[in-house]
Amino acid sequence: MKYAEFNIDSNKIEFLNSVFGIESVLLNGKRISKKFSFSGITHEIKLNARDLVLESKCKQFDKKEIKLELKENGILLKEQFVKIDKKQRYVWFLIGIGLGITIYELLNLLLVYLHQ
Predict the structure, then answer these.
(1) Would you say domain 2-84 falls under CATH 3.90.700.10?
(2) Whole-Å CA distances, 50 to 47, 73, 108
(3) How many CA atoms lie within 13 Å of 22's alpha carbon, on the beta-carbon side?
(4) Pick from 71, 43, 46, 74: nearest CA to 56
């Protein structure tokens, strides 16, 4: 799902994030970066002779938002804050519950096996 869009010199930079933490960056509709992240990551962007960096920082438990910073040579060009999709929070909540139950059951099996 698309979260943000930056326009630099008539070029469109788009940031997308999937429910499973896959971040993608598109430049004029073409994918130039695809990375996995829980809490944020850096995407490098070559735009003509310019070297840009798009940093994502995810605040899942605090403000439930993603902070996006577009920088050139360490200087902030643009910044956006976008809310995390509720669907994404629910999926991770369900995954957490599933993992918790699975770990609990495995530990119980291990304890039963060790006490025999």
Answers:
(1) no
(2) 5, 9, 57
(3) 7
(4) 43
Summarize pLDDT for 39-95 with one digit per residue, the tens: 789 999 998 889 999 999 887 666 678 899 999 999 999 999 887 767 767 777 888
C-alpha span between 91 and 98 (Å, rounded): 11
Q: Which two tokens stand for residue 6?
A: 């930056």
Instruction: Determine phi and psi for 64, rounding to 5 degrees.
Output: 55, 55
User: What Cα–Cα distance (Å) separates residue 54 from each residue in 13, 32, 65, 101, 116?
Assistant: 9, 12, 16, 37, 56
Amino acid at 37: S
